[in-house]
Amino acid sequence: MSLSTRSLESETGQLIMLTDQTETRLLQGQVAHYQRLSEMGRMMASWHIRSVRRCRRLCYTRVILLSRVCRQISRLSLLAKLNHGWKIWSIRCAICWCLPGETRLDDRLTLAQLFRDIEDALDVPLAAWDADCECINAVPDLQLQCNKEALLGALMNLVENSLQATGKGAELSIEASVLKERLCLMVADNGPGMDQEQCRKVLEPFYSTKSHGTGLGLAVAQVVAKAHHGEFVLVSELGKGTRAAFLLPYEKDANVSS
Ligand SMILES: Nc1ncnc2c1ncn2[C@@H]1O[C@H](COP(=O)(O)OP(=O)(O)OP(=O)(O)O)[C@@H](O)[C@H]1O
Ligand SMILES: [Mg+2]
Predict the structure, then answer these.
(1) 216 lines ligand 1 (CB under 6 A)
(2) Looking at the CA of 84, which ligand is closest?
(3) Of the ligands numbered here, which is closest to the C-alpha atom of 200?
(4) Could you tell which of 83, 92, 207, 208 is best to mutate to test the pocket of ligand 1, judged by most ligand atoms within 8 Å of the CB?
(5) Residues 62-93, buried b or exposed e (16+ Cβ, 10 A)?
(6) Are 134 and 152 a contacting pair, CB within 8 Å?
(7) How many CB atoms are closer than 10 A to CB 37?
(8) Which end of the chain offers a freer environment for a tag, N or C, measured as fewer CB atoms within 10 Å?
C-alpha cells in the first residue's frame, strides 16, 4: 500500500489516499524480470558472436597452417625429386600402405624387369657416393606380383642407408635368389655394421642416427614386406657390414624352377 495526503482547496482538513500497490509491484517485478532476460540475451548474443569470431579465427589459422604444411610438402617433394626421392616416397608409402585397402599388388613383372629398374635408379646415388654396386640376379625369369613403386622405393632406401653408413667408395651388392621357397631380395654393404641392440632399435619407426633422417626407411621396408605377404630381415655385424633382405612369396606355377 502507498499512503499520500492532499489538502482540500476550499475545505479544512486533509485527504488521505491509500493506494493498493500490489498490481504495480507485480508489473514492476515483471518488467525487471524481462529487463534481466533481455540483458542476458544481449550478453549471450555478444558471447556467441565472439565465439563465432574466435572459431572463424581458429579455422582461418588452421587453413593458413594447412596451406603452409602443403607448401612445405610440395617444397619437400621438389627437393625430394632433386635429392632424396626415396625419402618423401617412403613417407608417402608409409601413409598409403598403412591405410586399409591401399595394399595393391597390381604389377606383375619378372626379376629381369625389376633389376633393370633398380639399375636405372642406382645411377645417381652411386655417382654421388663414388660407390660401386654389384647386381646379381640369379632368377631373372621369376615372376613377381608386387607393387613395383613400393618395392623399388624400399630397396632404394636400403641402398641409401648402406651408402650413408659406408661413405665414399662403398661396395654394395643387390642380389636376387630363391631361399627356402621364397624370393630373397638382398642389399648388402661393407660398412661399419651394427650390434644386436642397434639392429633391434633401427627397426622402430622414427629411430634415426642422422641429423636429417626420418627414421622411417626401415619401418617402411617392414610394412612393404608385410604388404607383399613376406618378411623383412636385417642382419648386421659390427665392423663387417649389413645385409637387409626382403623374403617374398611368389607363385611357383608361373615361375621357372630355381
Ligand atoms: N646399412 C646400414 N649400416 C649401418 N647402419 C644402418 C644401415 N641401415 C640403417 N642403419 C641405421 O638405421 C637407422 C634407421 O634407418 P632408416 O632408413 O629407418 O632411417 P634413416 O636412414 O635414419 O632416415 P631416412 O631413411 O629418412 O634417411 C639409420 O639412422 C642408421 O643409424
Ligand atoms: Mg634410411
Answers:
(1) yes
(2) 1
(3) 1
(4) 208
(5) eeeeeeeeeeeeeeeeeebeeebbbbbbbbbb
(6) no
(7) 10
(8) N
pLDDT tens per residue across span 6-42: 777 777 787 787 878 887 777 777 776 666 666 666 6
What is the Å distance from ligand 2's center to 157 Cα?
5
Whether residue 220 contacts residue 93, with contact meaning beta carbons closer than 8 Å, is answered with: yes
Q: How many residues does the chain have?
A: 258
**What is this structure's pTM?**
0.68
**How far from 221 is each of 62, 65, 97, 115, 169, CA to CA, in Å?**
33, 31, 11, 18, 25
C-alpha cell at 239: 665392423
Query: Is the distance from CB of 93 to CB of 130 less than 8 angstroms?
Result: no
Distance from Cα 218 to the centre of ligand 1, integer Å:
7
Find the 160 Cα to ligand 2 centroid distance in Å. 6
Q: From residue 204, how far is each of 121, 198, 218, 221 by CA, in Å?
A: 26, 10, 8, 11
Angle (nearest 5°) at CA 167 between 93 and 74: 35
Q: Which three cell numbers stand for residue 22?
A: 500490489
Q: Which helix or strand (DSSP H or E) is residue 2 part of?
A: strand 2-7
pLDDT tens column, 212-256: 899 999 999 999 999 999 999 999 999 999 999 999 999 776 555
CA distances from 143 to 147, 162, 178, 230 (A): 13, 27, 12, 15
